[in-house]
Prior knowledge:
This protein has 380 residues and is mainly β. The chain has one domain (6-379): Methylamine Dehydrogenase, Chain H (7 Propeller), CATH 2.130.10. 7% of the residues lie in helices and 42% in strands. The chain has four helices and 28 strands. It has helices spanning 14-20, 24-33, 276-281, 367-370, and strands spanning 55-59, 66-71, 77-82, 87-91, 101-103, 110-115, 121-126, 131-135, 141-145, 152-157, 163-168, 173-177, 183-187, 194-199, 205-210, 215-219, 225-229, 236-241, 247-252, 257-261, 267-271, 294-297, 303-308, 317-323, 329-335, 338-343, 349-356, 372-379. The strands form seven sheets. Strands 1-28-27-26 form a four-stranded antiparallel β-sheet. Strands 2-3-4-5 form a four-stranded antiparallel β-sheet, with no helix packed on it. It has a four-stranded antiparallel β-sheet with strand order 6-7-8-9, with no helix packed on it. The longest helix has 10 residues, at 24-33. The two termini are 33 Å apart.
Amino acid sequence: MRKQTGSLMGCPSRREVLRGLAGVILTMSLEGCAQSLFSSSVAVPDPTPRPQGSVLYTYRGHTGRITTVAWSPNGKYIASGSLDQTVQVWAANPNDHFPPFIYRGHTAGVQAVAWSPVSNRVVSGSIDKTVQVWDAITGEHVAIYHGHTDIVMAVAWSPDGRSIASGSADGTVRLWDVATSKQMYIYRGHLASVNSLVWSPDSQRIASGASDKTVQIVEAATGNHLYTYSGHTDKVSSVSWSPNGKLIVSGSWDKTVQVWDATSGALVYTYRGYNVQAAQTDPTKGVLPDLIFAVAWSHNGKRIAAVTQVYCGDICGVVLGWDAYTEHNFTFYVEAPVFAMAWSPDDTRLVTSIAVSTQGLPQGGSSKEVDGQFVQISQA
């Protein structure tokens, strides 16, 4: 069994979080771990140019595990959601000094956040089974969507701004009309928790990845099932649509990332990578040793980034990326546990949420500088 160390001791690992999110007992344990780590709300800029993977600055605003991050389409803000029951909006450029806005509308940990296309509103999904919409800067409450009967695992705002899709551990995908706040339909095609959602760039289709090992495509306007992609052999944790609308990338606990045709479901390639040791001596080789927790297609369509973990277990992680069409690896870096990831709109940076501890570090390490739940922006 892999060990958890330091202040992570007793908190569920990423595996445990996904494996048991449908259960009330784990929900209680998640909340209990939410307050266990140190944090402070300071963004620290580093003006020195850095190589790929280098941390540019760090945000320390949350008091519990940060489960989700999203970069605003206008590039100015980042929204981060946490098991501390808050969503926090802060400047993507730390030189733009303003206090982070903290949204406290949820009564349990936040699992998902997404921006409106014009960057003025945020939608969040929570362990409290609600989907909530609110003004990103003023915090003015816009709407609460009730209907899910279990944890809301994923939310996604349509590119045309008219609709919000939500996925839940109750196995459903629900569509909400932004103008009226009414539920438009419930899609019940999955047999297990819906873990990830993504809209097609033209707002015509929705892809949902689930623990039933499938990605399912529905017609957004009606909820009619179009087809099911069944290429994975374990739960699908993350899906992302290519900007040109032609391909979908999906990450899974089967330790693969798969790219496939968004119209037919035909497999284009499976990215398996190689081991960490090989990549450290030859960076052109991939790094994909374990479960995949997140995948994201860059906005320019050229690259795919993924989050996995290295052999030391849940206390270590790898953020890696490769050319979307040639599969050539272009960068990777080993991090503390990574729980969420998003590209900047200009594709020059990645934002990730991490958990770190001084336990096991060389003597003399400063817990004030290292312990905690952080969001970091790194060079892509």
